[in-house]
């Protein structure tokens, strides 16, 4: 296969899947990892890719506009359901205090809770709060603020300050992107501030992220890798991605 053909194939994969792993592409195409890296560098110079550790993401992924929560709810739904089932094992005992980030991944976890779930909960997600309120055994605290319609999340100085006064046993966090260099990222500065406060408050931080978010990054970083404890993802994650996250000190659960 000529270099031009190989790069065209990589560009097509980026367009279709949003990302390319050096290890996987090298195995599939029967070339060295260094060859794939050079190909991805060429695609980056032509504006077709953005290089990240271990591969590249499509420019449209790295710079994408933020989708509304109603649109994101239908994306990767089977993966989010599998992640939610695996994350149930990470809930504390009934006397624990659990924080839920806003977002579709945490909403999927709440939907997976057993009917007799019983614990103290806190969230700034309006949709997540509504789902938690259906459980009679859950003692729910809702953190207020100005609600962003795009994500149905409360944001603002009051929201950040409220989390600064709390110490939940575990926080389940969602993110638009996760990578070794910039940690967890999201497009909006106010949303990032609230997420940052929640991560700082929790004794244990569990990230719920489908595999499309790994090695993807957005404008605002809100948590470094060393602030996290567990990442729960789906079977679309590559061996190389799991290995890198584990070497960084994270427990990786593949659902």
TrEMBL record:
Start and end residues of each HTH deoR-type domain: 3-58
Pfam families per the UniProt record, alphabetical: DeoRC, HTH_DeoR
Name of the protein described by the UniProt record: Lactose phosphotransferase system repressor
Phylogenetic placement of the source organism: Bacteria, Bacillati, Actinomycetota, Actinomycetes, Propionibacteriales
Organism: Aeromicrobium erythreum
UniProt superkingdom: Bacteria
UniProtKB keywords: DNA-binding, Repressor, Transcription, Transcription regulation, Transferase
UniProt-recorded Gene Ontology molecular function terms: DNA binding; DNA-binding transcription factor activity; transferase activity
Summary of the function given for this chain in its UniProt record: Repressor of the lactose catabolism operon. Galactose-6-phosphate is the inducer.
């Amino acid at each position: 296969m000529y270099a031009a053909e190989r790069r065209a194939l990589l560009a097509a994969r980026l367009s279709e899947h949003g990302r390319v792993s050096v290890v996987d592409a090298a195995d599939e195409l029967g070339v060295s990892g260094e060859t794939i890296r050079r190909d991805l560098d060429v695609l980056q110079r032509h504006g077709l890719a953005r290089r990240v550790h271990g591969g590249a993401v499509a420019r449209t992924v790295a710079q994408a506009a933020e989708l509304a929560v109603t649109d994101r709810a239908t994306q990767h739904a089977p993966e989010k359901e599998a992640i939610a089932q695996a994350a149930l094992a990470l809930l504390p005992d009934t006397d624990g205090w659990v924080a839920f980030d806003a977002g579709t991944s945490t909403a999927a976890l709440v939907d997976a809770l057993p009917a007799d779930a019983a614990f103290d909960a806190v969230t700034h997600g309006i949709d997540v709060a509504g789902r938690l309120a259906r459980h009679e055994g859950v003692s729910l605290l809702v953190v207020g603020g100005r609600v962003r319609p795009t994500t149905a999340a409360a944001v603002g100085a009051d929201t950040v300050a409220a989390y600064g006064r709390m110490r939940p046993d575990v926080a389940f966090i969602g993110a638009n992107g996760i990578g070794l260099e910039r940690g967890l990222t999201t497009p909006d500065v106010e949303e990032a501030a609230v997420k940052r406060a929640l991560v700082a408050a929790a004794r244990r931080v569990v990230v719920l992220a489908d595999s499309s978010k790994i090695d993807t990054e957005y404008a605002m970083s809100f948590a470094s890798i060393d602030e996290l404890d567990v990442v729960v993802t789906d079977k679309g994650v590559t061996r190389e991605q799991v290995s890198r996250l584990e070497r960084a000190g994270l427990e990786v659960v593949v659902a």
